[in-house]
């Protein structure tokens, strides 16, 4: 069973490479944003040099997870692929898990590209502890993918998935503090930003707040999204 599951992950990853949506949202747009906006950030706000890598990584991971993955799930659960799952007695959760695992691989490749190329392009320093840094990125990516999974499974109309994804992605980025300090925002908007994992991930990666202060809210978001996914998959049976 596990062998077939890992084969499914590899197969989904290869299918994603042929998907224009995944290539655009997981690679093309985040990397263009990294190169173009990164230069603007450093020109206008030189003090952002120390946080450039986390900023661009969070933006890219959030885009790939929240905008890139839901349409793939929509194709699985809104087409004849779902009937194939039923005919083959494959658990409905298989589609979510394989898509999330394949997307996680894409997002970590993107994060690695940003981390390794930033010192060359912008003359910034690498994170001091790379293993710890990528561990935090993996946690953030997993939580973001749980949100993408909830969108992909929960929206009945596949045409509305991109709209809902944008409605989640934009406030997630704008209220997280990566574009400008969150302290500039009104209290209500700062509280609203706490509903999205990007806010907690940025604080955690940049060393603001304790481990538990940032990790627990992301665990709570992840748990809620998993419950929503499980409920939706059960209804799809």
Automatic annotation (TrEMBL):
Example of a GO cellular component annotation carried by this entry: membrane
Top-level taxon in the UniProt lineage: Bacteria
Chief location of this protein within or outside the cell: membrane
Compartment(s) of residence: Membrane
GO molecular function, one term: ABC-type transporter activity
Protein's membrane topology: Multi-pass membrane protein
Keyword terms of this UniProt record: Membrane, Transmembrane, Transmembrane helix
Domain ABC-2 type transporter transmembrane: 12-205
Transmembrane segments: 21-45, 51-73, 94-121, 133-156, 168-185, 215-233
Keyword Membrane attributed: yes
Signal peptide: none
Protein's name according to its UniProt entry: ABC-2 type transporter transmembrane domain-containing protein
Biological source species: Anaerostipes butyraticus
